[in-house]
C-alpha cells in the first residue's frame, strides 16, 4: 500500500500543479475521482494486471472514461500506462484531493455524537474548530450510539474526545496515577 502512495505522489503533484496553473481544480478533481473509480473496477483491475501494451491499456481506459477526461487527463492516463502505474490511480486521486484541501485551507472533520446535533450546535463546533485550526472546516457528522453523551471530533491527527466515556476514562487514568 505504501508503495502505491510513493508511486502516486509525483503524478498527483504534477496534476495538482497543472490544475492550479490552468485554474481547473474542480475539473481535475472530478476527472481524477471518476478515473480512480474506473481503476477500482474489478474488470479494469484484471485488465491492468494483465499483459497488455501501454497503448492498448490507454485506449481501453480512455474509452471507458469517455467524455469525463479532457486531453490533459487522457495524457496523464497515457503516461501512467506507459510507466505501468495505472494501478496507483486511486492513490493519485487521494493525494490530489489532499493537496487541494491544503491549498484551499480546508479540512474534513468527523464529528461523532450520541444524538443528532442541531444546526446551532454544528455552527458552534465549526466556528470553534475554524478558529483553532485556522482553516475552513467541513463537518462530516454521524451518530455513534455507543457514546452515552457528548461528542468525539477527529480532524486529521487531532482528536477531541468530549464524550462521557472519554471523560470517565481520563478520570480513571488520573486516579490511577
- Gyration radius (Cα, Å) is 21 Å
Number of DSSP strands?
4
Shape: elongated
What's the overall average pLDDT, rounded? 83
Helix content: 55-70%
Question: Could you give a short account of the major beta sheet?
Answer: 4 strands, mixed
- State the helix count: 8
Q: Would you tell me the structural class of the helices and strands?
A: alpha+beta
First-last Cα distance: 39 Å
Instruction: Name the beta content range.
Output: 15-25%
Helix/strand order: HHHHHHEHEEEH
Strand order of the largest sheet: 2-1-3-4
Low-confidence stretches: none
Provide tags for this entry.
177 residues, four-stranded mixed beta sheet, 16% strand, ATPase_OSCP/d_CS, hydrogen ion transport, cell membrane
Produce a short descriptive summary:
This protein is an alpha+beta fold.
Question: What would you note in describing this structure?
Answer:
- This is ATP synthase subunit delta.
- It is a peripheral membrane protein.
- The protein has helices at 2-22, 25-40, 42-49, 54-65, 71-82, 89-103, 119-133, 164-176; strands at residues 106-113, 136-143, 150-155, 158-163.
- Strands 2-1-3-4 form a 4-stranded mixed sheet.
- With 177 residues, it is an alpha+beta fold.
- The radius of gyration is 21 Å and the shape is elongated.
- The mean pLDDT is 83.
- Helix 7 (119-133) links the parallel strand 1 and strand 2 (136-143).
- The chain is built from 8 helices and 4 strands, in the order H-H-H-H-H-H-E-H-E-E-E-H.
- 22% of the residues are buried.
- Helix 2 packs antiparallel against helix 6 (89-103) and helix 4 runs antiparallel to helix 5.
Amino acid at each position: 500500500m505504501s508503495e502505491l502512495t510513493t508511486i502516486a505522489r509525483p503524478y498527483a503533484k504534477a496534476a495538482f500543479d497543472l490544475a492550479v496553473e490552468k485554474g481547473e481544480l474542480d475539473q481535475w478533481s472530478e476527472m481524477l475521482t471518476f478515473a480512480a473509480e474506473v481503476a477500482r473496477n474489478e474488470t479494469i483491475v484484471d485488465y491492468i494486471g494483465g499483459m497488455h501494451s501501454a497503448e492498448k491499456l490507454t485506449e481501453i481506459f480512455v474509452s471507458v472514461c469517455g467524455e469525463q477526461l479532457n486531453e490533459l487527463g487522457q495524457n496523464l492516463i497515457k503516461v501512467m500506462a506507459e510507466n505501468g502505474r495505472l494501478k496507483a490511480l486511486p492513490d493519485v486521486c487521494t493525494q490530489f484531493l489532499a493537496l487541494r484541501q491544503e491549498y484551499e485551507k480546508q479540512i474534513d472533520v468527523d464529528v461523532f455524537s450520541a444524538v443528532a446535533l442541531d444546526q446551532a450546535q454544528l455552527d458552534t463546533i465549526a466556528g470553534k474548530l475554524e478558529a483553532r485550526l485556522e482553516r475552513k472546516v467541513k463537518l462530516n457528522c454521524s451518530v455513534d450510539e455507543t457514546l452515552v453523551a457528548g461528542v468525539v471530533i477527529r480532524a486529521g491527527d487531532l482528536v477531541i474526545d468530549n464524550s462521557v466515556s472519554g471523560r470517565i476514562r481520563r478520570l480513571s487514568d488520573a486516579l490511577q496515577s
